[in-house]
Amino acid sequence: MIMPSPVTRSQPGGPALLEVEHLTMRFGGLIAVNDVSFTANDREITAIIGPNGAGKTTVFNCLTGFYSPTVGRLTLHGANGPVLLERLEAYRIAQLAKVARTFQNIRLFQNMSVLENLIVAQHNKLMRASCFSLAGLFGLPIYRAAERAAIEKARYWLDQVNLTDVADINAGNLPYGGQRRLEIARAMCSEPVLLCLDEPAAGLNPRESAELAALLCKIRDDEKIGVLLIEHDMSVVMKISDHVVVLDYGCKISDGSPDHVRNDPVVIRAYLGEDDDDVTASEVLAAAPAVTVTGGRS
Amino acid sequence: MTETVMVDSARAVDWWAVVKEAAITAAIGLALTVIMVGLRTVESGGGLIIETHLTEVAWFVVLVFVGRAGMALLRQGVAVPVLVVSLAVAVGCWFVHFPSSVLQLLAFTAGAVLAIRALVLARIHRSPLSAQERDQRMDRLGARFQDAARYLGPALLAFAAVLPLLPFADRYIIDIGTLALTYVMLGWGLNIVVGLAGLLDLGYVAFYAVGAYSYALLGSYFGWSFWVCLPLAGIMASCFGLLLGFPVLRLRGDYFAIVTLGFGEMIRIILLNWYNFTGGPNGLTGIPRPSFFGIAVFERSPPDGVLAFNDLFGIPFSTLQRVDFLYYLILVLALIVNFFTLRIRRLPLGRAWEALREDDIACTALGINRTNIKLAAFAIAAMFGGFAGSFFATRQGFISPESFSFMESAVILAIVVLGGMGSQLGVVIAAVLWVGLTEFFRDLAQYRMLAFGLGMVLIMVWRPRGLLAHRDPTLLLHPRLTARQRQREAENRA
Q: What would the CATH number be for the domain defined by B147-290+320-462?
């Protein structure tokens, strides 16, 4: 049933940033991800879509080191040459390979202020500047300058996500949409080369989704980094993605431009079931912009 | 429960429900106490005989009945009669002869608590607030306190600094002050692990013990001065912190707490059984007293070639001089811990601790090395525990494993939790309350644990996050508002 579809689109973005080769993740007898290979380019938004339980978040967890893959090679071509992600611990991936991520269920530091959340994201840089707290304890100027720079960076991202006014309240007191945006800002404050977003539009209203889409395009174009996106909201995915990877039951079933994926019969079958000949996927995936397509297997 | 019920106090009280509720509670009380309190085995001649204490049971059951009836009546909005009766009980119980003092204490506490509740009810004249409203009010109070704390902190510090100079400060007061400050220091030290890093450490007293024994052994075997041993004791305790840290770092929550508890007991049992080295249950005696920074000693007739403190300053000798010196020593040590904590909270390390407490997975995703951060918290807190321990050893002149039982860990933890996790001032208040109340109720020493448990339960019911659980952000983007304004803003937003 699975036909690997050729990548038909020439890539206008940067060179390959992330290469996933033969990624397989087994939990006991369950194969959550089965021999998935794809490439995410620099300065492009790569979306990973698929029905619920397709293994999208598992791919993310392998990429960011929360799981170590059973089989496969994950190469990140960062500024300092290629890094093999599967060999690094989770925190080293963020520190060394500069892969930042957000979570499906928001994970903010709830009882810390919005600004503090963004400062914690710059931990490693500040830790070095404070000479592992020694310079900081005595308030040496070298640390103070670094802290000012960190606050400026935080302020920049607060402006970008429209949270400057509420910078001093606790992150847990933000409304839902604000928490989503703050999580993205926090990931960006760690200066990533690859930003992995796990369902950033979940729970947002159509206006907020549109703002999010604009923010992601801005991040791609201004920061010149690669974005990897898991999303169910097709209005967001089809509008902003440069490249879409479709997973189903842990296998890659399609890979290409949004247009290609939208018309791919295999994808239509995965989302709508075998016998729905009357409806074309393009109609479904494009028709209801704000409707979340969540696993319509029949 | 609406306003009308309260205003219309003439409304019929459902006496039947009140009596039923009180009777059920009294019956449960009876069932619980009749065997545990009512029957006691006493050795007589060669055998055991059973002694009955049914009067105590009867007293207890009556107290429970009356108390529960009072609670039920309060719920029905009858405030003034309950207030009168409960006040009468709270005052009267000091004049009536009770069969046992625990009953007296119980009657007093219950009467006082009921009286307070009735007073609140009578004054506000409306139904008890919902839990959320009550919480919000306490938060507001906490915020107001936080604003006041800016003045309260320095005021307390000034008071602590001049205490030995005040006319009423006799040796007893200074000793209590020293003890309170020791707990403050330990509380502040443990606050780093529990309050900031969010790791529940039930074995903190182990580091206190390591510090105390380090100084006691180095001081008495090698004759090293306190001022050399103090840092060494800190380093030693810190090493033990790392030693404990490594294996437990992969554990979380309850498992972590249990392992730290075990570690604390291990240290105590090693001290107890390693007779040749630590003196076992006999402890170590003759621990050298501290000198005045190695310049002079606090003795009436010092050995040849050693300067006496009173001669150094040309004042008459007094035994109080050493006591005062020790008091100031622990004050300075505690302030060092406080200064360090306030400072580190504003540094990446401190923020990482707090972030770790909030969400450790998010920390990993941001490239924070959890292991190092946790180890740092452990080692630093252990170091302060070690300082406090070596102070304890030099002050007492005698230490034994008994001083480092689990009870001590529990008290220190209770001080941190009751004070409000992460709140420096809360720790001070809780420590002073603990030491003060323990001294005040010295006659009831055997019921100390009872009162302690009761206090814990009450605070956890009324103020689950501790007395002063109000966290100030460590840095602000916008001009500073008072905590009260911020609290109001947060409420408006919510």
A: 1.10.3470
Residue A5: which CATH number?
3.40.50.300
List, in order, residues 6 or more apart from A138 with CB less than 8 Å away. none
Judgement on whether residues A80 and A196 belong to the same structural domain of the protein? yes
Q: Is the pLDDT of residue A297 over 60?
A: no
* B368: nearest CA partner in chain A: A91
- Cβ-contact A129, A143 below 8 angstroms: yes
For the ranges A146-155, A286-295, B96-105, B445-454, which has the lowest average pLDDT? A286-295
Same structural domain, A182 and A145: yes
Neighbours of B26 (CB within 10 A): 20
- Report how far Cα B344 is from the mean position of its chain's Cα atoms: 23
Please state whether beta strands A251-256 and A243-248 pair in parallel, antiparallel, or not at all (unpaired).
Answer: antiparallel
For residue range B41-62, list pLDDT tens digits in order: 888 877 888 888 888 888 889 9
**A103 within domain boundaries:** no
pLDDT class for B129, splitting at 50, 70, 90? low
Segments making up each domain of chain B, as ranges = 3-124, 147-290+320-462
Residue A287 has pLDDT above 60, yes or no: no
Q: Is A170 within 8 Å of B490 when comparing Cβ atoms?
A: yes
Backbone angle region of B77, left / alpha / beta, with phi > 0 → left and psi within -120 to 50 → alpha: left
Shortest alpha-carbon distance between residue B65 and chain A (Å): 43
Asked whether the beta carbons of residue B362 and residue A107 sit closer than 8 angstroms, the reply is: yes
DSSP designation for B192: I
In angstroms, what separates the C-alpha of B329 from chain A's closest C-alpha?
22
Pick from A115-124, B27-36, B86-95, B450-459 the range whose average pLDDT is largest: A115-124
Q: Which among B359, B362, B477 has CB closest to A167? A: B477
A242 by DSSP, 3-state: which? coil
Nearest CA to B63 out of B30, B40, B35, B39 is that of: B30
From chain A, the residues in CB contact with B474 under 8 A are 116
Cβ within 8 Å, pair A92-B490: no
User: Using CA atoms, how far apart are residues B168 and B170, in angstroms rounded to an integer?
Assistant: 6
Q: What is the DSSP string of A197-215?
A: EESTTTT--HHHHHHHHHH
> What domain range is A179 assigned to?
110-191
SS3 B39: strand
Q: Which helix (H) or strand (E) holds A31?
A: strand A30-41
Does pLDDT of A291 surpass 60?
Answer: no
- DSSP class of residue B219? I
- Please tell me the predicted confidence (pLDDT) of residue A7: 37
Burial of A105 (0-12, 13-18, 19+ CB in 10 A): exposed
CA-to-CA distance for B490 and B476, rounded, in angstroms?
15
What are the counts of helices (DSSP H) followed by strands (DSSP E) for chain B? 20, 4
Q: What is the mean pLDDT of residues B100-122?
A: 82
Q: Do A130 and B471 touch (CB under 8 A)?
A: no
Measured between CA atoms, how close is B357 to chain A, in angstroms?
8
Q: Say if residue A236 is in the same domain as residue A279.
A: yes
Evaluate if residue B194 carries a pLDDT over 60.
yes
pLDDT at A293: 44
Closest listed residue to residue A294, CA positions, set A235, A234, A246: A234
Whether residue A209 is contained in a domain is answered as: yes
**Bridge partners for B195 per DSSP:** none
pLDDT of A246 strictly over 50: yes
pTM of the model: 0.78
Question: Residues for chain A: how many in total?
Answer: 298
Q: Which residues, 6 or more positions from B10, have their beta carbon under 8 angstroms from its beta carbon?
A: none
Contact B473 A116 (CB under 8 A): yes
Q: Which A-chain residues 170-199 have CB contacts (< 8 A) with chain B?
A: 170, 173, 186-187, 190
CA nearest neighbour of B432 among B152, B90, B115 = B152
Q: Which residue has the higher pLDDT, A4 or B165?
A: B165
Nearest-angstrom CA–CA distance, B107 and B66: 10
